[in-house]
Design goal:
Helix 3 packs across helix 4 (59-66). This protein is an alpha+beta fold. The protein has a 4-stranded antiparallel beta sheet with strand order 2-3-1-4, sandwiched between helices. The chain contains 7 helices and 4 strands, in the order βααβααβααβα. The protein has a single domain, classed as Nucleoside diphosphate kinase-like domain (Alpha-Beta Plaits, 2-Layer Sandwich). It has helices spanning 11-15, 19-28, 43-49, 59-66, 81-89, 102-106, 121-131; strands at residues 2-9, 32-39, 71-79, 115-117. The two termini are 14 Å apart. The structure holds inosine-5'-diphosphate (IDP) and magnesium ion. The site of inosine-5'-diphosphate (IDP) has 9 residues, from loops.
C-alpha cells in the first residue's frame, strides 16, 4: 500500500555534505520525494516536533542539536514507506545500525544520527502536517 512518511536530514548530515547521498538512498529504495523543504528550526519548532519526547533526559540536548543548523525536511512516498524508511535509516544508535543503512554511513552517535523518520501512520500524519500543507505535496 502506498503511504507517506516524513524524513529529516539532520544538521550533522547537512554539515557533512551528505544531502545528495541520502536523497539518492531514498530514491534507490523506492521512496519518492513528494515535498522537499530546506530550513533552520527554531528551538521551539524542534520542541513542538519532538513533544512526545518531552520527558526524556535528552530532550533539551536533542532540540538544541536540531536547531543548530539547516535541515532538509522531506515527504517520501512509496509502498510501505514508513517501514521501508525505518529499515533504510538503521538503528537509532549508529553503532548498532546494519551495514548499508544511512545511520551506519553518516551517523556519529546516538544523538547525532543523520536522519529522522516517522515511526507509525499516526506520527507520519502529525509530522507531515507540522511542516507541509496538503497542497504542497505533489505526489
Ligand atoms: P528514532 O529517531 O530512531 O525514532 P527516538 O527514540 O525517537 O529515535 O529518538 C529521537 C531522537 O532523539 C534520535 O533520533 C536521537 O537524535 C535522539 N536520541 C534518542 N535517544 C537518545 C539518547 O539516549 N541520547 C541522546 N539522544 C538520543
Ligand atoms: Mg522516533
Amino acid at each position: 500500500m502506498s503511504e507517506r512518511t516524513l524524513a529529516i536530514i539532520k544538521p550533522d548530515a547537512v554539515k557533512k555534505n551528505a544531502i545528495g547521498d541520502i536523497i539518492a538512498s531514498y530514491e534507490k529504495t523506492g521512496l519518492k520525494p513528494v515535498a522537499i523543504r530546506m530550513m533552520q528550526f527554531s528551538k521551539s519548532t524542534a520542541e513542538g516536533f519532538y513533544a512526545v519526547h518531552k520527558a526524556r533526559p535528552f530532550f533539551d540536548s536533542l532540540c538544541t542539536f536540531m536547531s543548530s543548523g539547516p535541515v532538509v525536511v522531506l515527504v517520501l512516498q512509496g509502498d510501505n514507506a514508513i517501514k521501508k524508511n525505518r529499515e533504510l535509516m538503521g538503528a537509532t544508535d549508529p553503532a548498532k545500525a546494519e551495514p548499508g543503512t544511512i545511520r551506519k554511513a553518516h551517523g556519529a552517535n546516538i544523538e547525532f544520527n543523520a536522519v529522522h523518520g516517522s515511526d507509525s501512520p499516526e506520527t507520519a500524519k502529525f509530522e507531515i502536517a507540522y511542516f507541509f500543507p496538503e497542497t504542497d505535496l505533489v505526489g
